[in-house]
Amino acid sequence: MRQAKSLILPAVLLIGLSSCATQRPLVQNPEVALSSVQLESLSLASQKFLLSFDVTNPNAFALPVRNIRYVLLLERQPFASGETASRFSVPANGSGAFDLSVELDLMRTAVSLAPLLRAGSSRPLEYELHGSLAVAIPFAGPLEFSRQGTIVVQ
């Protein structure tokens, strides 16, 4: 009898853990898309771009974003990457937007800027965006995002 009782608790825990593994995560990943790339300033030493993003929150609660980590490729070439502290909230089952200002050094980014210079401002460029949003929600790790599309640099 004592041995049967000692087996019940591990069995209940195992069943509970296996049912948790089949459920959706507590926090679903948002969708993040690049909405615009604007050239703000251009000199021989550096170029400054404003990157704008749209965020869609599929969760039934707001996402309080605290940090953004991103990698952006244009025409399969590394364009910009980084991590920035950004505090904003995306409403429950809603959408929001955020901007990042990026300053590039011409000496290090000549290869990634070449497609922009060749295309001018009229042809859409392919982009790949990967990254994560750190949110102020207990026990929630970084929320990953990944997106491909096209964009016209303005």
Q: What does this 3D model show about the protein?
A:
The chain has about 150 residues and is an alpha+beta fold. The chain has 2 helices and 7 strands; from the N terminus they run αβββββαββ. Mean pLDDT is about 80; it is low at about 5-20. It is elongated. It has helices at about 1-20, 105-120; strands at about 30-40, 45-55, 65-75, 75-90, 95-105, 125-135, 145-150. Strand 6 and strand 7 form a beta hairpin. The strands form 2 sheets. Strands 4-3-6-7 form a 4-stranded antiparallel sheet. It has a 3-stranded antiparallel sheet with strand order 1-2-5.
Alpha plus pi helix count: 2
**3D shape:** elongated
* SSE string: HEEEEEHEE
Instruction: Look at the structure and give the mean pLDDT.
Output: 82
Total strands: 7
User: Percent of residues in beta strands?
Assistant: over 45%
The share of residues in helices is 10-25%
Low-confidence stretches: 7-19
Provide key terms for this protein:
single chain, 154 residues, alpha+beta, four-stranded antiparallel β-sheet, three-stranded antiparallel β-sheet, 2 helices, elongated
Topology summary:
Blueprint: H1 2-21, E1 31-42, E2 46-56, E3 63-74, E4 77-90, E5 95-105, H2 106-119, E6 125-135, E7 143-151
Antiparallel strand pairs: 1-2, 2-5, 3-4, 3-6, 6-7
Summarize the structure.
This protein is of the alpha+beta class and 154 residues long. It is 22% helix and 52% strand.
